[in-house]
Specification:
About 35% of the residues lie in helices and about 30% in strands. It is an alpha+beta fold and about 290 residues long. The protein has a six-stranded mixed β-sheet with strand order 7-6-3-4-5-11, with helices on one face. The chain has a five-stranded antiparallel β-sheet with strand order 8-9-2-1-10, with helices on both faces. Strands 12-13 form a two-stranded antiparallel sheet. It binds zinc ion (ZN). Zinc ion binds next to loops.
């Protein structure tokens, strides 16, 4: 299968920025790691793609966190992304499944429910900045469009899609983000709206082999977009054994020694990626050594 990547593009008149991502492998890896059922795969996959698209505006070491906190059965959907195409995420209840909608679509809106969406940008200095908006449908793309318009005052269009195959596997996933600069021409706004109508089935297009460059071209057609950059994207977590050991140490000597006495092994599972870290009794006590030396 072909690799996942994101492209950034601009129109001739420099009135709109367009981002397109193919995230089929990213979402399939998330599904495999978290054991998500189809509706959870779709919700998490849309959020992962959204994180990558929003992350395309980050620089250097900046980090972005997208939290979708609905009252539906899925619970929270949380994603973090950086400027280098790394994304990770989880859904609180990955085993949730719902019957399809009347149109035969995965019932993401019902599974997410109503609540709030928050975007936090940690720019590496000062306090992280968080903006939020109410969820308007739970379908994620519409919620994000609403958030960008109200909280960030950026007129945008967002298209997200995940196609799940017969065995629950991800066969196509990705998204589009179109951001308009102030005072775009009426001609461009109308053209974008019309073109985006034809891109609603983005997951089917991606599953059929349409590339991110072709998606961008379809958004701006008939004009030919200028591609500004192409970034490979991947599911990548920042957890490792040392960080988990630090977390255990943070429990404090008393609690950690008690845990080590109670069980032969301490198991810590990373929320974001599902990776499991096992510490035997001796290893757990080893974690305490640097503390004792202080
Ligand atoms: Zn992890």
């Amino acid at each position: 299968m072909v690799d996942d990547y994101l492209v950034r593009a601009i129109d001739e008149g420099r009135q709109a920025r367009v981002f397109a991502v193919r995230s089929t492998h990213v979402v399939e890896e998330a599904r495999r790691r978290h054991g998500t059922r189809p509706v959870a795969t779709a919700a998490l996959g849309r959020a992962l793609s959204a994180g990558l698209l929003l992350g395309a505006n980050l620089k250097g070491e900046d980090l972005l966190t997208l939290r979708i906190l609905g009252d539906g059965p899925l619970g929270a959907v949380v994603v973090t992304a950086d400027a280098r195409g790394n994304v990770r995420g989880y859904v609180q209840n990955p085993g949730v499944d719902l019957p399809p909608t009347a149109e035969g679509k995965l019932a993401v809106g019902a599974a997410v429910g109503r609540g709030y969406l928050y975007v936090t940008r940690d720019l590496g200095f000062g306090a992280p900045f968080t903006g939020g908006a109410a969820l308007i449908s739970g379908e994620i793309a519409a919620d994000l469009t609403h958030y960008l318009a109200t909280s960030e005052q950026t007129p945008s269009a967002v298209v997200l899609g995940v196609r799940v195959g017969a065995a629950g596997e991800v066969v196509g996933a990705g998204g589009l983000l179109v951001q308009l600069f102030p005072d775009p021409s009426e001609d461009l706004a109308a053209r974008l709206e019309e073109n985006l109508q034809g891109l609603r089935e983005i997951s089917a297009l991606l599953a059929g082999g349409v590339t991110p460059e072709e998606l961008v071209a379809r958004v701006l057609a008939p004009e030919v977009p200028t591609i500004l950059g192409r970034t490979p994207v991947r599911f990548a977590c920042t957890c490792n054994r040392e960080k988990v050991a630090d977390l255990l140490a943070a429990l404090g000597e008393e609690e950690l020694s008690a845990l080590a006495r109670e069980r032969s092994e301490i198991l810590v599972r990373c929320h974001f990626c599902g990776e499991e870290y096992r510490f035997g009794r001796a290893e757990a006590l080893e974690v305490l050594k640097p503390m004792k030396a202080e």
